Amino acid sequence: MRIGAHVDQTDPIAEAAARNAPLVQFFLGDPQGYKGPEFRYAAGAAGLREDATKAGIDLYVHAPYIVNVATTNNRIRIPSRKLLQQHVDAAAEIGAQGLIVHGGHVNASDDPEIGFDNWRKAVDAVDLKLPVLIENTAGGDNAMTRHLERIGRIWDAISGCEQADRVGFCLDTCHAHAGGIDLTTVVDDVRAITGRIDLVHCNDSRDEPGSGADRHANLGAGKVDPELLASVVREAGAPVVLETPGGPAEHVADIEWLERAVGS
User: How is 216-261 classified by DSSP, letter by letter?
Assistant: First the structure.
């Protein structure tokens, strides 16, 4: 089982070493801005790729939160698609294993089918140089990936795309819990829809099931049944990224907690 954490992008190799982790996830630039990706690693993109390979560290990049390729708002959708392409290119340049992106949402008055079709258009338009992993989200009545049914509609929409095999899934346990998805069956349910789980964001939740609140907690310190957390990771059999609060010490404690829980 390969477990890592979301870290600062300045020196992901040092961050991985501080956690004794074989993988890390990070942003390339401002997660709330349209400026585009940037490489803050001192040796640049090529140096990061080379150093990660030498160290045996797998890299994952999280796309900015503002990316919303599903929306009917052209002033958001078009820049989002451009930003997604830029981050695909940048993530591929550093040899990342995948780019994680949120499912986005439509407006309250919109037909959700338009959002699903906009995902199809995005998959057709963006040159997917590496796997793009769509992540389930915690809240929002108009979200594209809060509920299993809507995740299924996205996969229906993109199934005929030439690059459909380059689209994977990132399962976030806090988001599933907060979104009202049953964690006892979520792995089988997601695989029945997507055929795959490429990455797990293993996070506890500060809030109750179905709250819609995206507030992460350290493992075993939140409202998610600890046995369920371990079961999801065990059954998914995918690499794990912790997006839990704190720095190296807290993440090491979470990694050790998860290793014990999954091994039990």
Answer: EE-TTSSSS-HHHHHHHHHHH-S-EEE--SSSHHHHHHHHHHHHHH
Cα–Cα dist 150/105, whole Å = 11
Per the structure block, which two tokens stand in for 256?
């050790």
**CA torsion angle for 229, 141, 196, 72 (degrees, to 10)?**
-150
Closest residue by Cα to residue 202 from 212, 186, 153: 186
Phi-psi region of 210 (alpha: psi -120 to 50; beta: other; left: phi over 0): left
Domains recognised in the chain with CATH numbers? 3-263 (3.20.20.150)
State how far the Cα of 190 lies from the Cα of 209, in Å rounded to an integer: 18
Contacts for 149 with CB less than 8 Å, ≥ 6 apart: none
- Closest by CA to 99, choosing from 31, 153, 157, is 31
- CB 196 within 8 Å of CB 213: no
Tens digit of each residue's pLDDT (9 = 90 or more) over 6-42: 999 999 999 999 999 999 999 999 999 999 999 999 9
How far CA 86 is from CA of 13, 38, 89, 104, 123, in Å, comes to 23, 10, 5, 18, 14
Task: Give the pLDDT of residue 249.
Answer: 98
pLDDT tens for each residue of 182-201? 999 999 999 999 999 999 99
What is the per-residue pLDDT for 178? 97
Identity of the residue numbered 178 = A
89 Cβ contact list (under 8 Å, min separation 6): 37, 127, 129
Is 264 a residue whose pLDDT tops 80? no
Write down the pLDDT at residue 206.
98
